[in-house]
Amino acid sequence: MYMTEVKFFALGGLGENGKNMYAVDVNNELFILDAGLKYPTNELYGVDEIIPDYKMLVAAKRRIVGIFISHAHEDHIGALPYLIKELNVPIYGTPLAIELIKDSLLEAEHNLDDYIFNTVNTNTTLPFNNAKVTFFETTHSIPEAVGIAVETELGSVVYTSEYTFNQIKDPKYRTDFHQINEIANRGVLAVLVESAGSYHTGFRNIDLLRHQIENIFTNAKSRIIVSLFSSDLQKIQWVINISLAHKKKIAVVGRKAQRIVDIALKNGYLDIPEDALVNLRYIDYKNKNNQDDLVAIVIGKRHEPFYMLQRMARRIDRLINIESKDTVVLLTPPIPGTETMAARTLDILYRGDSQIKVIDKSLLSTSHASQEEVKMMINLLRPEFVIPVIGEYQHQIRVKNLASQIGYADDKILLLDNGDVATFKEKGHFVSKKDIRTGDILIDGTPLDDNNDVILRDRELLAEDGVVMVIANVNPKTRQILDDNIEIITKGFSYYHESINILDQVKEIFLDVSKKELIANYVDWNSYKRNFRNEASKYIYQKTRRNPIIIPVIISTEI
Questions:
Q1: What CATH code is carried by the domain that includes residue 45?
Q2: Which tens digits make up the pLDDT trace of 260-317?
């Protein structure tokens, strides 16, 4: 008779914002929960996106029964286009999530026929050998968000993902309390509860946000420009509804991001009457797109809404130029990596004389569980263990404190890092620290999963200290530098130190190194370049306290 063993670990999402990817192992059957990305901060030069290091799963591919998606935000699905080639396993999600995943795969030039997609809903039960998977609807800022329960003989491991308990009439954003209660009655081993909103107290009133938007529309005298993230379909629909109530025409600006809006409209997740939707034409001497009854919804992901607003404020955009009579409403709070651009955008907007309305960030972050909502979810599910996920370590600590307040002992609250493994058996549990290899794969057009540190160090040096390139033609037979014609090119490197001409001295260093290297019986070109780089770097740092990248280009030329 075998003993049931349940393991939980995270490849991303613990101690960070984004990159959510979790795994539940039930007697060697692997259930992957979400596969998201996160966006880089400013010091990650040239990096577009960051995804979890999923390589350990490739070796365990045969044990993976599927990837189960909680909702269609990029921090939960954004890694799929990169890992799916190596990890081609079935993907399970609600209809909207599957549609947006397919769209992202098509954008990455995947053939959808190569993959298996399965749509689920709150009534779906998926039986596997050692566990079954069920779902329950949750309220989030995108339709059809679900929590996921992996039901085992020891009880369910319940992943709440991101949620709130806001009660609204739209059925696409409702919480299924009945299903949560059913899962709780069958017994819950552990709840993987989100942490990101745990710094907010009480229950947040979404009606207050809608009331503020209503007031802005009521008091606006002319055209209204609203910035929104393209994945926040709930707020996009609010703005649409308020616009219609004020008899406004609606234009959606943001060509790349408009695909999510098109998919949402096509499948009934957004509702804009055709007679209210207008297509803007390029600005010319006849057309300014500045009708008083126009609402321009500027959408994009990450930095895109800020970038478009800057262009509009500088009056260089082809569709919208912000004028003094306009009202600009920012419903896009800064997210990690965009703080500087968001602040710069505000500064540019305020230089004009239009009406700028910035909504408080606390009102805009109503799609994450607050302290009372975290406690409520734990009390509803009544788990044996509480594991905070989705958030930085400070957020996980807050959830630990909240669980303590409602009676959980410290040994029943597990604070984990990416790579830690929590193992549950009938006779107890234990945590193995850093038992799984984790890390980041940097996306710079294509994944950079090797030598990340070296690449980033070089980019940092290029950004801060520049580059010095030394070009010389060398005759390998005569062992001579042709015509002493040594060219030095610098980019991003300034030099000045009293009467010393640094670049002339660099040229002398190259000649000295060349004499030593070219008299050898065998010229090791790699050693030649390396020795010059070392000597030149030492000299430049001694004189300037700067460390540019030194690139010797030695061209073998025979005459």
A1: 3.60.15.10
A2: 888 999 999 999 998 998 988 888 888 899 999 999 999 998 889 999 999 999 999 9
What CATH code is carried by the domain that includes residue 484? 3.10.20.580
| Number of other CB atoms surrounding residue 207 within 10 Å | 11
CA dihedral 53, 58, 60, 63 (to 10 degrees): 110
Parent domain of 300: 206-359
Find out whether 84 and 73 touch, Cβ atoms under 8 Å. no
Q: Which two tokens stand for residue 542?
A: 């001694």
Tokens at residue 484, please?
């002493």
Pairing type for strands 188-194 and 385-389 reads: parallel
Q: Give me 188's structure tokens.
A: 């819950």
Q: Bridge partners of 444?
A: 446
Q: If DSSP codes are grouped into helix, strand and coil, which group holds residue 196?
A: coil
Same domain flag for 547 and 407: no
- Are residues 113 and 237 both part of a single domain? no
Q: How many CB atoms lie within 10 A of CB 525?
A: 13
Distance between CA 447 and CA 432 in Å, rounded?
Answer: 29
| Per-residue pLDDT tens digits for 357-371 | 988 877 777 789 999
Is 458 part of a structural domain of the chain? no
Query: How much is the pTM?
Result: 0.81
Residues in the chain, overall count: 559
